[in-house]
Amino acid sequence: MDESRYMSGFGNEFSTEALPGALPRRGNSPQKAAYGLYAEQLSGTAFTAPRHANRRSWLYRIRPAAVQEPYELCDIAPRWLSHFDEVPTPPNPLRWDPLPLPGPAAQVDFIDGMTTMGGNAGCAVHIYTANRSMGTRYFHDADGELLIVPQHGRLHIATEFGVIDIEPQEIALIPRGVRFRVDLPDGAARGYVCENYGAHLRLPDLGVMGSNGLAHPRDFLTPVATYEDVEGHFEMVAKFQGRLWKAPIGHSPLDVVAWHGSGAPCKYDLRQFNVMGSISYDHPDPSINLVLHAPSSTPGVDTLDFAVFAPRVLAMQDTFRPPWFHRNIAGEFMGLVHGVYDAKAEGFLPGGASLHNPMIGHGPDTGTFEKASTHDTSRPDYVRDTMAIMFETPVMIQTTRFALESPQRQRQYHECWMGMAKHFDPARR
Questions:
Q1: What is the pLDDT of residues 365-402, one digit of tens each?
Q2: d(Cα 150, Cα 14) in Å, to the nearest integer?
Q3: Radius of gyration (Cα) for the chain, nearest Å?
Q4: Sign (positive/negative) of CA torsion 159, 160, 163, 166?
Q5: How many Cβ atoms sit within 10 Å of the Cβ of residue 231?
Q6: Opening angle at CA 344, ends 340 and 345, nearest 5
Q7: Could you tell me if 221 and 267 are in contact, meaning their C-beta atoms sit under 8 angstroms apart?
Q8: Catalytic residue among 283, 293, 356, 362
């Protein structure tokens, strides 16, 4: 990775220019910007949001974003949805095999290959499968910010703010409204996307944990300014009020020569996550694995949590080390980016997914339970070669028709618990 292409920090007030002197040297925007550029502000929060939560950036660009033809409704990406009431969501644990990658005969880019698995008023969860770069097509989402988690294949994301390259076990966060293009350096690609409709995702407060746990702000990388000064026939695609729209545009919209502000895209390497955990007894709540969260107006309750289950050491003694059996008020959508998930013996594959909605019982499968119940806890377990992620919400994640009727759905998923033996004996303690 070329570190010179990025600036370190999360939510910082950044300044960057691709040409010397493109940024104004005074606090105000000048009457005439340098190099004949146009000044444009992109506001991601209310103007009066508290300073620590305010997200806005000043862009100095070759043409304003208003320079394009009108949008028209289009029918591309028919499986990218923002409504989740097509079919009733069953109160069952759900799991899916990986969605297949497009074959050579198909030409599917990041937008065309987006498939919605479910969602609610706070977020939507998608899986993308693609084999073609976007090329002359650009995109922005007016409905929410996008958390992109590649599982197979690298992504080259060219944005208005600069270029972000991510690979599996890294993530990218694209703010609402930011225009970008996704190219595929490795050909076919697959991954997870969470579309956040609520407050901005941010780093959690650490409380009694102290100052050094979980994800560090310095490990989040924001791109330096670069620009495309290209004219031709391009297409601008927008997601607006749950529908996709397209418009012709005669130039690349990634023409920002300089920018400063706090509302910018960024990337993060999940392998940098500093795992916290128990070294005495019991498995901690999954909130100990929180990377980013979107707070609600109720203290302690988020509209969206993004957690990661990274390599770690389990050293708790005289206890059951895997996650216990549980029923939560939360909807939990899990994906496996790499390796093996330690709480499942089989069936949960890289690129696959599972969904456990509120008050649906779940936990370790039969094989994992039996192994952990007799395990020698005097020795630590080194959980290596794994990376699982979870999108968690405080309400049910409604599933789409595609998710329920997909041939990748494991309709016998519940059988992984049906072998749990009855050990109860009132005569034996």
A1: 999 999 999 999 999 999 999 999 999 999 999 999 99
A2: 26
A3: 23
A4: negative
A5: 9
A6: 85
A7: yes
A8: 283
Q: How far apart are CA 198 and CA 44, in angstroms?
A: 11
The arithmetic mean of pLDDT across residues 133-160, rounded, is 98
- Cβ atoms 4, 224 nearer than 8 A: yes
Average pLDDT of 81-96? 96
Q: Is 126 an active-site residue? A: no
Which pLDDT does position 303 carry in this prediction? 97
State the pTM of this model.
0.97
Q: Which structural domains are found in the chain, ordered by start?
A: 68-254+263-270 (2.60.120.10), 272-410 (2.60.120.10)
**Mean pLDDT to the nearest integer, 202-227:** 95
* Cα–Cα distance for residue pair 107/131, rounded to 1 Å: 6
Structure tokens at 58: 């000043």
| Other beta carbons within 10 Å of 292 | 25
Quickly state the pLDDT bin for 241 (edges 50, 70, 90). Answer: very high
Residue whose C-alpha is closest to residue 65's, from 176, 179, 181: 179
Phi/psi-derived region of residue 306, left when phi > 0, alpha when psi is between -120 and 50, beta in every other case: beta
List the beta strands (DSSP E) in 84-166. 94-96, 114-119, 123-130, 137-141, 145-152, 155-159, 162-166
Q: Determine how many CB atoms are found less than 10 A away from the CB of residue 71.
A: 16
- First and final CA of the chain: distance in angstroms? 58
pLDDT at 343: 84
Identify the three-state secondary structure at position 147: strand
